Amino acid sequence: MTKQKVVNMITTYNEKENIQAMVETLEKIGENEPNYEFITMIVDSHSPDGTGELVRNLAKKHKNLFLLETPRGLGISLINGYKHAISELKADIVIPNDCDFQWDPVLIPEMLRKLEEGYDVAVASRHVKGGSDNFSGFRKLTHFVSNTAFNYYWAGIHESKDLAGNFKAIRVKDVLDKVDLDRLNVRGFVIQSTMIYELSKKKAKFIEVPAKFKDRRAGTSKVGLNKQFFKDILETVKNSTRIRFERSPKLLKFFKFGIVGGIGFVINFVLFRVFKIVFKSLPFDISVINWVANALAAEAAIINNFIWNNAWTFAKEKISSPVQIVSKFIQFNLSSFVSGILIPSTAIGVLTRLFGDKYSSIYFVVAVFGLTIPLNWMIYNKVIWKKK
Fold first, then answer.
1. 273 and 135 share one domain
2. Are residues 143 and 164 in contact, defined by beta-carbon separation less than 8 angstroms?
């Protein structure tokens, strides 16, 4: 029987003190796994401490040890490492890990057993029964914000409770090799949750293996309150939001609708105040002046909203035919006249008559957010840009 190739992909930056111990530990584990051929690939980001050179020297007596040098950045290193493991080393299973022994490689046999049972991804997890971490209070807080608040709840990545760890076993055939690694645009620690999300899109079957996250054996931690830390937080917010919108296209559409509506709101609000000043000398009751002022201001906002919703919010349902544009704009205007002019303007006029003019700005806000926005959202989806 042909042995399956397991590529242990170890990412490093200034890990000279840990390299030899990690290489020898992985070799010993491999010796006890007769059905697998263990390969160790060190993915080093040109460490100034000489990590790469040490790996080259070790490779002279460890035939299954390879070095891949990449630019710095965990995301960059892992993406390049995955590609190299698949295309050059012909991996059947890839197991990324750090070099500091915080994730204990002795878990590898258990993770391989899970893949033998039919799972595609076995994640070493601090967040299931039997797992634990060694975090300080501050590290617990930042881990919760990144792992749980943004990636688990906001992005909706529920395939694993521990989304921030590097240590996992991934089947290559029809799972990892289906991920478009060239499309991934992440540089930092967010690569971990991103990979779990990308693997989930390939219908991978996940399981978590309890793991105790320990103190590093030697060397200095790369995690700290520095420039890279803030870059990682910003990338986490950006990427988790991208995933949320990708998983919930209606939410993205509503977000765009909100932006366009917000711009329309500003146009409406400013012109409403301008027209009030322009028309204040006319011999009409203030309630009538407010009605007319909002009607004209709303029409300007309607024109703006139609243009941007057609080009951006409902881009997939975009109206492009000149005849359709004219027809739909008339339809849009008529529907908006009811939801954006007649109903809210009448509400503003009635409220002005009942409670006086000094609260007119409040009436405007109530009318727009309580009536115009929900009515427009329904009409836009069900009528104007209805899917064919």
1. no
2. yes
H or E stretch at 9: strand 4-12
Evaluate whether 361 touches 307 at the Cβ level (below 8 Å): no
Given 247, 280, 312, which residue is the final one in a domain? 247
Tell me which of 207, 227, 247 is where a domain ends: 247
**Over the Cα atoms of the chain, what is R_g?**
29
Query: Do 105 and 223 share a domain, yes or no?
Result: yes
Contact between 271 and 295 under an 8 Å Cβ cutoff? The reply is no
pLDDT per position as a tens digit, 91-102: 999 999 999 999
196 and 280 part of one domain: no
Q: What CATH number corresponds to the domain at position 208?
A: 3.90.550.10
Give the C-alpha separation, 344 to 54, whole Å: 73
Per-residue confidence (pLDDT) for residue 225, from 0 to 100 = 61
Q: Kindly give the parts of the chain with pLDDT less than 50.
A: none
Distance CA 163, CA 125 (A): 8
Question: Which structural domain, as residue segments, surrounds residue 332?
Answer: 249-384
Angstrom distance (rounded) from CA 350 to CA 4: 77
Contacts 24+ apart (CB under 8 A), 181-187: 181/79, 181/82, 181/83, 182/83, 184/75, 184/79, 186/75, 186/79, 186/235, 186/239, 187/73, 187/74, 187/75, 187/76, 187/231, 187/235
The confidence score (pLDDT) of residue 285 equals 86
Shared domain check, 189 and 96: yes
Q: Residues 75, 189, 99, 8: is their CA dihedral positive or negative? A: negative
